[in-house]
Sequence to fold (403 residues):
Amino acid sequence: MDDASWNKPSVDDERATTIQSLDVDGAADAPAESSTRRTFLRRASALTLAIPGLGAALESCSSRETGRSATSDTTEHETHAGTTGTRRDSLRFHNPDSKLDTSLKRGTPHGLSGTRPPSAAASAVYARFDPRLPPLPGERSLKLHFHAREVPVRISPDTVVAGWTFEGNIPGPLLHCRVGDTVHFTLTNEAEIPHSMDFHAAQIDPRTAFRSAMKGQSVSYQFTPRRAGAFCYHCGTAPVLMHIGAGMFGAIVVSPRTPLPPAREFVLLQNGYYLGQEAAGTRPSDYQKMLGGNPDIVTFNGRPDQYSREPIRVKRGDRVRFWVVNPGPTMDCAFHIVGEQFDTVYIGEPPTQRVRGVQTWSVPAGGGMGFELTCDIAGEFVFVNHAFGHGQKGAIGTLVVEA
Fold:
């Protein structure tokens, strides 16, 4: 992406743009200017968000308005807002600052058009992401020091993405602790724009703990998980959609005080990539595509189809527990294993919040669940997001049960 694209006005800058309110009942009293073709199309385009099908009816008309640039369109809206004092259309103009997830004030500049292609993309090496849950620490504390970095990440043999990362990889490190352990966390920001850390396993004041660090700064805090389960962590800096979509997420599994039955345990994080055109051998993330919610690639653990090429292997008779965490940033994960059923699904805090004999269960964006089965039949079992529009984009793998 060239410098001009990287420095284009952000969505924060454009947020102040408004359009004139539509008064359908009073259309006969509208000023003469409203009868012009251009004004009609502008107002009608806003209505397409509320009236399904209207956009298709107007498409042929709007396509003939070829003389108007995006800049002049914005200027018109700003002029109407300034002269009439009308309200902002909250459906058309998106506010990317989610106050539920970020401590940043509005107006902080961001590169919202997409991630900037880093240098040395050719040196990025493809490697399968190890899905095994790490062992519990020997002490009753977990000491973590993460670094926010912009790096190229090779997610398949022929695709490198411009990643915003924790510890230089997508996803970030897999973490494991117990209920009652103390997590000591520090984030040091080595990137050009602000970053932060939101742990879903923490119950803590987010304005203090999840605050953003500028380049060269560090933020530290600690928390004690009160509930067991599988939780995502992610950057909470506005716009959160962009930071998660560009790769800043991971998982922490919190084991209950009374251990679950022994099992082979694996962690799968589902994420979607929304990619722009390749530049310097790298695909940047595209914020406008993220707003549309239709990913180019969907993966388990950051790489499409990696567990089809290099399956997860267990032995017949093993109890297998998948911790499925879904940072999103937008779509759900309908987790299913072809040819098997789950003995237990922990939909909330294990071991009490569970259901038995499940074929498929959806993990929402921002959620995490435990899926458990006893592998008593040898064979090759495909696990997949059964919403196949996403599963066929790469959220698929194979569990090989060896005799």
